[in-house]
Amino acid sequence: MKTMTGAALWLVRLAYLTFALFPLFWLIRISLTPDNLLYSEGTTIWPSSITLANFTYVIEESPFPVFFGNTVIVSMGTAVAVTLLAAGIGYAFSRFEFAGKRALMVFLVITQLFPLVMVITPLYQLLAPIGLVNTRIGLIVVFTAFNLPFAAFLMHSFYEGIPRELEQAAMIDGCTRFQALILIILPLMLPGIGATLGFVFTAAWSELLFSLMLITSETKKTFAVGLLSFVGKSGVDWGQMMAAATLALIPPAIFFTLIQKYLVGGLTAGAVKA
Amino acid sequence: MSVAADSPATSGRSPSRPRRRFAAAEAWFYLAPGISIVALVMLVPLAVGISFSFQNYVIFRPMSRGWNGVENYIDLWTDRTFWLALANTARWTFWSVAFQLGLGLGLALILNKPFPGRAVFQSLVFLPWAVPTFLSGLNWQWLFNPIVSPLPAWLTAVGVLDAPRNILSDPDLALYGPITAMIWWGVPFFAITLLAALRSIPQDLYEAASIDGASAWQSFRHITVPFLMPMITITILLRTVWVANSPDLIFVMTEGGPANSSQTLPNYVFTSAYKSMDFGYASALATVLMVLLVMYSVLLLFIRGRLGQ
Amino acid sequence: MAEVLLRQVVKRYGAFQAVHDFDLDIAHEEFVVFVGPSGCGKSTTLRMIAGLEEISGGEIQIGSRVVNDLPPRARNISMVFQNYALYPHMTVRQNQGFGLRMAKRPKEEIEEKVNRASKLLGLREFLSRLPAALSGGQRQRVAMGRAIVRNPDVFLFDEPLSNLDAKLRGQMRTEIKKLHDKVRTTVIYVTHDQVEAMTLADRIVVMRDGRIEQVDTPYEVFHAPASRFVAGFIGSPPMNLIEARTVADGDGISVSAPGWPALPLDPAIFGQVGPDRAVTLGLRPEAIAPERMAGSMARPLAFNADITLVEPLGGEALLFLKMGKDEITARIFRPSTRLAPERDVRFVVDLAEMHLFDAGTGARLNAPRTAIS
């Protein structure tokens, strides 16, 4: 009986693993399949021969390295900006009582209800006169605003896990509140900062619609837009596209793998009180 | 706990007024940069967007632009595509969230018990969430294609499909393609939040229950579920809203087709705005979607409050 | 010189008043303990002195400086928290030196002071460890070291021992006492444990519902509690409090309580208490004993009672008696024979150890005793 349930449990684990990984496996499999076998061996688990030609093409001859660089800049910029601002908001929510605090928290929750498709045009009209359309900075500003509310609550939850007595002790020991934050609290917030950075980086990396609408010039396109314009062209080279997609997967996958356990830990520390 | 407790009742002789005001100002020092960017980039465009919905605003006809009251909303009432998109949005959101919740809860329960290789397993099963949404769309679009993927053949073998064909081109089934991709992509989010909630359940409760003779199912029913409920409702709320608002996967996989059969409201907003270039109508659609989501959230929180009592 | 003066200090949270017109003068080098049940305002008062809570009214002076508007860092105080609040990412050495580092003291001075405090507290072998690698008692010591190193005007302790087990708590209590003898500084110490209050304090401040009930030496607080509340709070096991009435009894006045014989009042002490008054009679468990075990008593009065339960504690024993509808505790030191529940036992009570409180206000009815015998 015991071994039966044990075996069943392993079967379930295996099913989850297959469900999670098979699509990724297929992505990589196609990127490695030579063009001439793409359709003839389309449904076999592994093609009779493989090639790295798609990858060399994408890296050496396509515009994807530029897209890749743009996406790194935008995602990194967004992640850093959001984490910095969320560190401030989360800290204020966690450590201060002030008039309008609840209203402000509700406001941040409500922003999560907005259909973002609705703000594309007004945002475009707002950003165009100040020259932020078709710039990476513009994208960073927009993504920062979109990701900030959730990140602020995430940071808040991490702050709640740090005893207030620590900064009080520091303030008695001669720190100003700001010094206590920098010298005592932030070092202890590193898991939270890491989790927020990774979370936002991943989110910004996958954004499509706003990049599509706000970026027009080829040299500033992000990966998502680049890939999609690939699809639009006639005579799509699927192998090359999948190779590019595989490359696009690497940074968020690394980031996310590094932070996922902090994410669980941070939510355990505070958010459950919600 | 806070230094900045505000107490308007303070008598005139209180000498601490300046410091209190300073403390409140200090809170805003940390808040202001973030809050102002959110307000500027989300709130202002939203207000402008809502104002569009009361205008005749078609890019091709700049001369006829002007306020037209609720005309867009009246058009919407008689628009069959709107009602179809609304029904599709409900279908898309319900199935996506229901399966994400079920599978996510299962995954969280699995991950909450130690087993050899758990850490590696966890980072692997969470991986789909790191995949950009548009990429998972492209990927699943490919997977549903019977020529280049074994999946349709497998679905036929287990009896889900009558023949290995592409469900994305079948008007009856097209929406289930993006739904599958959404489930695949979103299970980790549920698993992460529910795992966090599971970890915060005091273990001695289970010990006490097993001493009292509770079965595994009874422990789950009477300890795990009540403890998870707050987290489950909040996660369902967040995800429902997010999924309902999210056009990416459908945009990439079916573009709402074939023949609007997989059109959801956000996609219809996008099509109206950037294919028909009718911003007024698109904004009316978006406003309706937002109002429905606000009503849904209030209802869910109200029910949760009721259950909590 | 650092005396601490509190003048009419008030703390409000919105409509709720946590501390009412708190007045207290604490002398230089005095060890004062705030004691009371949880929620009595003792920690709030301490935190107001520290500057961690703003005061809603009144004035606080430390060393003749008004500190109302000064942030904690400018008050030259140090504080030991209940959960120690050690900086988890700093070693024991860094934790102790942090305050001096913030004050920009030279490295050698920090080194020397940290070493001196560590020696005093027996922490020298742990200096490069992180707090996570220390036991509860060691963390407690580091927290005290961190407080001492800065040589502050005032030490504040906020329930510093309540996270320790009973044995360690006793040890640390003794150490704090010795420490205060070595490092003479003004100390304000908050606890809900009356044993800590009794053993450590020069003066005890008993608080209840945001108000001071009594400020006095441990001896006076124990022997002349100012109110029924103090009487019941200080002392373990607590004083027996019995609802009773005064009655005219020949020339004098007696206290009459159900199940008890008439207890005549000593007119020298209770002269102003008239007859026919509702009172609460207070008798410490030490003032009651079976006649065959009673030591010398100043004014013994005999009565009979049933022993319903015996709790032997080794060097002493607690007896529970049924008197009317009350259960009364008696405490016997060095019980000479084995004790067991028994009917109709002859007891004596020492009337010189009798306390009376007004049944309505709870105020003590005789003037506090001044003669200490």
From TrEMBL, chain A:
| Membrane is among the record's keywords | yes
Q: Which UniProt keywords apply?
A: Cell membrane, Membrane, Transmembrane, Transmembrane helix, Transport
Q: Does the keyword Ubl conjugation apply?
A: no
What's one GO-annotated cellular component? plasma membrane
CDD domains linked to this entry: TM_PBP2
The membrane spanning regions, by residue number, are: 7-28, 72-93, 105-125, 137-159, 180-205, 238-259
> What Gene Ontology terms for biological process does this UniProt record contain?
transmembrane transport
Q: Where in the cell is it found?
A: Cell membrane
Sorted alphabetically, which PANTHER family does this protein's record hold? INNER MEMBRANE ABC TRANSPORTER PERMEASE PROTEIN YCJP (PTHR32243:SF18), MALTOSE TRANSPORT SYSTEM PERMEASE-RELATED (PTHR32243)
Q: In which family does this protein belong, per the annotation?
A: Belongs to the binding-protein-dependent transport system permease family.
Protein name per its UniProtKB record: Trehalose transport system permease protein SugB
Give the organism the record lists.
Jannaschia seosinensis
Q: Point out the gene that encodes the protein.
A: sugB_2
TrEMBL record, chain B:
Please give the InterPro entries that the UniProt record associates with this protein. Answer: MetI-like (IPR000515), MetI-like_sf (IPR035906)
Pfam families xrefs: BPD_transp_1
Where in or outside the cell it occurs: the entry states: Cell membrane
- GO BP terms: transmembrane transport
Its keywords, alphabetically, are: Cell membrane, Membrane, Transmembrane, Transmembrane helix, Transport
Q: Which SUPFAM superfamilies match?
A: MetI-like (SSF161098)
User: What GO cellular-component annotations does this UniProt entry give?
Assistant: plasma membrane
Q: Which domain of life is it from?
A: Bacteria
Q: What is its main location?
A: membrane
> Key word Transmembrane helix present in the record?
yes
**Membrane-crossing residue ranges in chain numbering:** 27-54, 92-112, 124-144, 175-198, 219-242, 279-303
Which residues does the UniProt record annotate as the domain ABC transmembrane type-1?
Answer: 86-300
The membrane-topology field of this record reads:
Multi-pass membrane protein
Membership in a protein family? Belongs to the binding-protein-dependent transport system permease family.
What is this protein identified as?
Lactose transport system permease protein LacF
Phylogenetic placement of the source organism: Bacteria, Pseudomonadati, Pseudomonadota, Alphaproteobacteria, Rhodobacterales
UniProtKB/TrEMBL annotation, chain C:
Q: Which Pfam families match?
A: ABC_tran, OB_MalK
Q: Which residues form the ABC transporter domain?
A: 4-234
GO MF terms here are: ABC-type transporter activity; ATP binding; ATP hydrolysis activity
Q: Which domain of life is it from?
A: Bacteria
What UniProt keywords apply to this chain's record, in alphabetical order? ATP-binding, Hydrolase, Nucleotide-binding, Transport
Work out whether the entry's keyword set contains Phosphoprotein. Answer: no
Example GO CC term: the record gives: ATP-binding cassette (ABC) transporter complex, substrate-binding subunit-containing
What Enzyme Commission number(s) does the record list for this chain? 3.6.3.20
Q: Sorted alphabetically, which PROSITE patterns does this protein's record hold?
A: ABC_TRANSPORTER_1, ABC_TRANSPORTER_2
Q: Which SUPFAM superfamilies match?
A: MOP-like, P-loop containing nucleoside triphosphate hydrolases
Q: What are the GO BP annotations of this UniProt entry?
A: carbohydrate transport
Could you tell me which PANTHER family the record lists for this protein? MALTODEXTRIN IMPORT ATP-BINDING PROTEIN MSMX (PTHR43875), OSMOPROTECTIVE COMPOUNDS UPTAKE ATP-BINDING PROTEIN GGTA (PTHR43875:SF1)
Query: NCBIfam families per the record?
Result: PRK11650.1 (NF008653)
Q: What family classification does the UniProt entry report for this protein?
A: Belongs to the ABC transporter superfamily.
> Could you identify this protein by its name?
sn-glycerol-3-phosphate import ATP-binding protein UgpC
Q: What's the gene? A: ugpC_3
